[in-house]
Amino acid sequence: MNVVVVGLGIIGGSMAKAVSEYTDCHVIGINRSDEALQKAMECGAIDEIGTLDSLKKADLIILGVYPEVAVEFIRKNAHRIPKDCIVTDTSGIKSKICPALSAIADEYGFTFIGCHPMAGKEKNGFDVSEATLFRNASCIILPCNAPQEKVDFLSDFMMKLGFGRVVYTTPEEHDRMISFTSQLPHVIACSYVFSPCCPNHKGFSAGSYRDVSRVANINGVLWSELFIENKEPLLAEIDTFIGNMTEIRNAIEKGSRQELAELLNKGKEIKEMLGE
User: Closest by alpha carbon to 47, among 106, 3, 104?
Assistant: First the structure.
């Protein structure tokens, strides 16, 4: 089977490495910079440096590029994609990319299925990609009205790459949940390190500082696109967070130990109930 990976950053690069490591597929890499392609060839992540014509022999195309780039790439090259090919993406936001790529797929006869691997690192680029990145992670699959046998195929394929489970959802539910589980933590982390105390944290910080600030090491270009694409759900989560913070702030300001203790215990109870 020919797998074409478009974009060899941390996710696309890790996909290429995992496919090469855990399957017998022939992996073809397409990337705008030659440096990543050469590195991918040297380490065995890909078997071939592809061209646009390589899409003509693809059985599976994995898009490891920004959402807008992914849509534009498929729109320009849809005529090259075989009708029996599955196209999937790795984007963190789905409400725009899924309808756009589904429409192109319907027009040209191939299959599009949305995908979001719930894995990553604070750093980006091919150099930090690894075949084990997806080990035991969740893989979110968005069927987008694709034939069930194609959805089952992609789900089984992703499990071969090390994912621990597959979760099925819609673009709308995906984006609502991701605004809470992924995007809001990045907003909080960036806001946290804006504090004038941050440059002087050494010697005063331990696990709490590391936990809250970790994902402030962010790709601003990518995440600004994701935040704005998911504006409404993310703004709702930010407003909820501000409201919760305000409750705690007001209890501190009033010096109300009972009210403050109740709020803190409520957080503890929720965390213990969820178990993770």
Answer: 3
Cα–Cα dist 236/240, whole Å: 6
Say if residues 141 and 113 touch (Cβ distance below 8 Å): yes
Q: For the chain, count helices (H), then strands (E).
A: 11, 8
Any idea where the domains of the chain sit in the sequence? 2-169, 174-274
Burial 41-76 (b: 16+ CB within 10 A, else e): eeeebbbbebeeebbeebebbbbbbbbebbbebbee
Mean pLDDT, 10 residues at a time, the chain of 276 residues = 97 98 98 95 98 98 95 98 98 94 98 95 88 97 97 98 97 97 96 96 93 92 91 97 98 97 96 87
- CATH 1.10.3470.10 corresponds to the domain 174-274: no
The superfamily in CATH containing domain 2-169 is NAD(P)-binding Rossmann-like Domain (3.40.50.720)
- Amino acid 219 reads N
2-169 and 174-274 share one fold:
no
- The residue among 173, 69, 78 whose CA lies nearest residue 116 is 173
User: Quick one: pLDDT at residue 123?
Assistant: 79
Report the distance separating Cα 211 and Cα 67, nearest Å: 28
pLDDT (0 to 100) of residue 178: 96
Q: How is 140-152 classified by DSSP, letter by letter?
A: EEE-TT--HHHHH
* CA distances (Å), origin 263, targets 228, 251, 256, 258: 32, 9, 11, 9
* Three-class secondary structure of residue 26 per DSSP: strand
**Helix 231-254 × helix 184-193 angle, to 10°:** 50
Tell me the whole-structure pTM to 2 decimals: 0.88
Query: Which tokens belong to 268?
Result: 């503890």
